[in-house]
What we know:
Strand order of the largest sheet: 1-4-5-6-7-8-9
Strand content: 5-15%
CATH topology: TIM Barrel
Amino acid sequence: MNDIFLKACKGEKTRPVPVWIMRQAGRYLPDYQKVRGTVDFLTLCKTPELAAEVTLQPVNVLGVDAAILFSDILIPLEPMGIQLAFSEGKGPILTPAIRTAEQIKNLKGITPEQDVPFVLETIRILRKELAFKCPLIGFGGAPFTLATYLIEGGSSRNFLNTKRMMFQTPELFHELMSRLTDVTIAYLSAQIQAGAQVIQLFDTWGGILSTTDYENLVLPYVRRTLDALSGLVTPTIYFVYDGSHLLHLLKDINANVIGLDWRTDISQAVASLGSAKSIQGNLDPCALLLPEQQLRERVKAILKAGQAARSHIFNLGHGILPEIPWEKAKMLVDMVHELSS
């Protein structure tokens, strides 16, 4: 099996540098669109054979060094008592929005084997299919990111309702965060037990907060989540989108790898994180639109900067866009392998 991704997660420098792409199983791939054309998004997530099929597509087409489970960070919210739907124009819609003490009290805990068995079955299928190929990444949303979707009822531009709860009724916010932390730990622990070899914790909206608010209101729950997972001896990656101002707070968290978006200078990140953390990232997803030679120069620069870290995993600074030709993604993977060998 190709294990350079696992080695890099554990702090080993590898040749070549491993590469995978966030949202690599998705709409930019023609094979994915064929499958997606037969079912809606949630049905695809909840059908293990189909979810496994689209998870494997980028491994076979692009030659990436890791597969990531095809699912969605909001999946564990449904069994908590939330209605979840996806709109092509609006993104996720969660009903009801959670904003009162009574609503928070009524949120259920989850038993993953009973409540999300399709996720665990997908992982079991994938471990068999990937046995001689590459490792499998499981993932989930961090408690704060899940909280924003619950409080806002979906996506938001200014997160007014979330910050209103944080600032005006902090006791409610902490109660919600504590419940979501328990759910996240249970959900990701079950993924590990089912066979996930690495876990990535996505804090998509952590970067909307000031350093002070993140440190006081969010970081304790990140720590609790990662501390619980670390006892299961599985490498973890923590990724905060638009979170370069928070890096100095992440030096001591219990994650093996810190993901970086494209706004973050890698040398500054290494200086903030020290030698105990590996890094992942961080090409701008839109840079895949560059001509080949210019893309090559960007890849070279990121690989060179990554040499200063304990170890480096190449990735985009966020998910690949549907408008990117799949051939450019394949070109990127080949470039990373060639230039870092």
